[in-house]
Design a protein that fits this description.
The complex is a heterodimer of chains A (503) and B (346). Chain A is mainly α and 503 residues long. Chain A has 21 helices and two strands. Chain A has a two-stranded antiparallel sheet. In chain A, helix 7 packs parallel to helix 21. In chain B, 47% of the residues are buried. Classes of the chains: A mainly alpha (503), B alpha/beta (346).
């Protein structure tokens, strides 16, 4: 019961007019930058950071947090409508969301991702509220060996992202791993594939890569065939998901909430990874895996829920340990520190208004986002009626600004254009980009964890098998690997037999 | 008739001209306004000279880090004092050398300023090839330092630095230390300590970021580290980490019971990170005087100091001369450590 009286206190904090206003401003800005392709929350948050110096710490954090989860809400919009991810975490949503839009079901796709985001977001706040301290302790048990085994598990996902040829997907994954090698080797300090270009010495940023492969290449392929778009613009059926959509989506939303929250706790690309994991989970357990990639609503509901649930998870290490798991959380940490509020185990005792105010503000903010986003769906769907010759220069403009804003570097713009052309060629030859991106995210983390573990064990590989969490993850990934292999083999055999019977 | 014809003609002309006249009237007004504004600008320019447009303050690290936070604190007050916006431009990459090279190549008109710090201008030039040297910058002054301390987990068996050294000598290769990467202050600090305590074999486990290695320390996956106080303050106060020694000149006010490395017999182990403001070399004297004046007022501003302390800095003021002398000593020190411990990024 105690926790509820605290929560009521938190709501009292949020409902103060200034906090309420800042919460709205936060989620509004968040939705905007989420919708604009390429422009991420980091830039907006760091520009608005000084505006929080003058207000109380809780007010500042409420606004900045609003930007963060607001961006995750808005990120799906352009993925669904124009096949361009608004946020790196919404890359997976393109796979089925855009297909739904092409079938005239943009409304239900947007609707289910708004509802899924709301449910995932709310779930993660509840979980955060009850489990923040025990979870933080568990998170600390994850050292390099555990990360390595988890990343191995993650690599098995590649198989589920495939629509066409598995061989091509593996090739793409290898290219992704190679791209991930670019930059300074963490352990030895050697520069790899840098060729004297100092901008490459920290590796390639994910935003220019993802925006190039998905955004620019999409625009390039679309301007080839301007008339084709007209066909699916006209037959937009209903705006909101129907009962059947809901039935299909409930399971993915529930699983996505859990996957997102727990992966969000881990440092690194928690929200991006969670959307990939959710997608592959849904495809794995679905009775109709062949529908994925062709407009399955489960493929939208799961990942969109997961990337929003991950935002709540990311608060666990920040609030409980004072450790920010990503750049966005580091900015929030800064906003608190500047007022002399240090997050960590003592936060809940020393500054209960900050702790409970932030948590309550996330309930309020999520509700605001739902109210803000549901009426917007109608407007977004109408956006499809905007002629592409007007739409595509705007898309290009925003992706260019977005790529520049990451490091304020023109190099990133050229990098994005380069990957745009690469992506265009890949599409022409029917290679899929998603496995490349996943391998690009996982590869460096996998390598880093592997080598750190080996330093820890003085070179003994046994370190991965003597630690229970690591062993469990490894066994699971081997099992998944074998079972996928068997499915692929059976499929191939069937086809061979079919072929044989034909001839 | 002729007259009439002329009139007719002129009427037509007039009509056309009228349009033209009308347009040109607008155009003339526009020119007058623009010209007036330009004169005004020049007049203001002549009266108060500098600054007349926004100033760019380049921070060579990313938006989430503490250097960027400190930069934004300085920018706020500096902008109030100078009366023009001071815009923070984060240009991260390659150990701060991308931002530093960008500033070194900028115009020295006083509109581009730089956060001159121990990373991009101390450690990085000592371990990688960079496209600038410290002589390319005109230093205005230093506003803060950050201190480092050695921590172990609260349940570690070593209660003092001495016990740790004895254990490490008995069991070479079993202990591991964490850093946030090659060539960071944490890395330099530990290498400094290892060479001071002759023959210690403690392996280096680099992590990608500060938060990652603090998590590794708290989880007991690595044994120790020499870290920025700001990063460990929370866990230390909560009793999760224990400080064994500080790498400072004197004992810290917040932890009067904790000895410094020099008290324990390692006088070489002194390391701080420092932060100042500089501009590309060759700023005209009246502009640099004006900037210095505003900067020193900012550095000494009580509100600025308070905010800097909150984000883990120790406000330590050095004027242009003192800072220049200090930096040249530090440069040599970093080069020596890098050479002895063979730390290179290439």
């Amino acid at each position: 019961m105690d926790i509820f009286s605290h929560l009521i206190y938190g709501f009292q904090v949020v409902l103060e007019p200034i906090n309420f206003l800042y919460c709205f401003v936060g989620v509004f800005i968040g939705t905007l930058i989420g919708v604009l392709p390429g422009i991420g929350p980091v830039g907006a948050m760091s520009i608005l950071l000084p505006s929080t110096f003058g207000v109380s710490p809780v007010t500042g954090v409420i606004m900045l947090a609003g930007i963060y989860y607001g961006a995750m809400y808005g990120g799906s919009t352009t993925s669904i409508l124009v096949n361009i991810p608004g946020e790196a975490a919404s890359v997976v949503t393109c796979l089925d969301g855009y297909q739904m839009a092409r079938q005239g079901r943009a409304g239900p796709a947007l609707g289910i991702s708004a509802m899924g985001s709301f449910i995932g977001g709310t779930f993660s706040i509840i979980a955060l509220m009850f489990l923040v301290y025990p979870l933080a302790e568990i998170a600390l048990k994850f050292g390099p060996p555990e990360y390595f085994s988890l990343m191995c598990l993650g690599m098995t996902i590649v198989a589920y992202l495939v629509k066409g040829s598995l061989i091509k997907a593996v090739i793409m994954a290898i290219i992704g791993l190679t791209l991930g090698c670019i930059g300074t080797d963490l352990i030895s300090g050697k520069l790899r594939f840098v060729f004297g270009v100092s901008q490459l010495s920290d590796g390639i940023n994910i935003v220019p890569l993802a925006m190039g492969l998905f955004g620019i290449s999409e625009v390039l392929t679309n301007i080839e065939k301007p008339l084709k778009r007209m066909i699916y613009e006209t037959k937009i059926r209903h705006i909101l998901p129907n009962l059947e959509d809901w039935k299909k989506s409930l399971g993915p939303i529930a699983r996505g909430s859990i996957i997102g929250f727990f992966l969000g706790i881990l440092p690194g690309g928690g929200s991006i990874l969670s959307s990939f994991v959710s997608y592959s989970t849904e495809k794995r357990i679905s009775k109709h895996p062949e529908e994925f990639g062709r407009g399955a609503i489960e493929g939208v509901a799961g990942p969109e829920t997961a990337n929003n649930a991950a935002t709540g998870g990311a608060f666990v290490p920040l609030l409980a340990l004072g450790i920010p798991p990503n750049v966005i959380m580091a900015l929030l940490l800064g906003a608190l520190l500047i007022h002399g509020v240090a997050p960590g185990p003592m936060l809940i005792i020393k500054h209960p208004d900050v702790f409970w105010g932030t948590i309550a503000s996330m309930y309020v903010g999520n509700a605001m986002l739902l109210l803000l986003n549901l009426p917007l769906i109608g407007i977004w769907v109408k956006l499809l009626k905007v002629p592409y010759r007007i739409l595509f220069p705007l898309i290009l403009l925003f992706t260019l600004i977005g790529a520049y804003s990451i490091n304020n570097s023109t190099f990133d713009i050229f990098l994005m254009i380069f990957f745009g052309i690469v992506g265009y060629l890949l599409r022409k030859f029917e290679y899929e980009e998603a496995p490349l991106l996943l391998a690009f995210i996982l590869g460096p983390m996998l390598e880093q964890a592997f080598r750190q573990s080996l330093i820890m064990s003085n070179g003994k590989l046994s370190i991965f098998f003597v630690r229970p969490i690591s062993l469990g993850a490894l066994i699971l990934s081997i099992a998944l690997f074998i079972s996928t292999g068997i499915t692929v083999f059976r499929k191939a055999r069937k086809e061979v037999i079919k072929y044989g019977q034909k001839t | 008739m002729v007259k009439k014809h002329k009139q007719y003609l002129s009427f037509q002309w007039c009509n056309k001209r009228k349009e033209g006249l009308y347009m040109s009237k607008k155009f003339i007004i526009l020119i007058l306004i623009i010209g007036g504004l330009m004169c005004l600008d020049k007049a203001i320019g002549k009266e108060s000279s500098f600054p007349t447009k926004p100033i760019e303050l380049v921070c060579p690290y990313g938006a989430g880090g503490s250097t960027s936070m400190g930069t934004r604190i300085i920018a706020g007050t500096l902008s109030e004092l100078l009366g023009v916006p001071v815009i923070v431009n984060n240009k991260p990459g390659a150990g701060g050398s991308i931002g530093a090279a960008y500033v070194a190549k900028s115009k020295s008109d006083g509109y581009t300023l730089f956060v001159f710090n121990s990373g991009s201008n101390g450690v990085t030039p000592a371990i990688r090839s960079v496209e600038y040297k410290n002589a390319d910058f005109e230093l205005f002054g230093q506003y803060a330092i950050q201190t480092l301390a050695m921590v172990v987990k609260n349940d570690a068996p070593w209660k003092s630095l001495e016990e740790l050294v004895i254990y490490a000598k008995k069991n070479p290769g079993t202990l591991k230390y964490a850093t946030s990467g090659i060539g960071t202050s944490a890395h330099f600090g530990m290498e400094l300590f290892k060479s001071a305590a002759e023959g210690l074999k403690i392996d280096h486990v680099p992590f990608k970021s500060g938060p990652e290695y603090i998590a590794a320390l708290l989880g007991g996956h690595v044994h120790m580290g020499i870290l920025f106080l700001v990063d460990i303050k929370g866990p230390v106060e909560a009793g999760k980490l224990r400080i064994l020694a500080t790498a400072t000149e004197k004992r810290l006010e917040d932890y009067p019971d904790i000895p410094t490395f020099s008290e324990l017999g390692y006088p070489e182990v002194k390391l701080t990170a420092w932060y100042g403001i500089a501009a590309p070399n060759g700023v005209p004297k009246e502009i640099s005087d004006k900037l210095k004046d505003a900067l020193y007022k900012t550095f000494r501003h009580p509100e600025v100091k308070k905010m800097l302390i909150h984000i883990g800095y120790v406000p330590v003021f050095r004027d242009a001369e003192q800072f220049k002398k200090f930096v040249s000593e530090e440069e040599k020190k970093f080069q020596k450590i890098a050479k002895e411990a063979n730390i290179r990024v290439d």
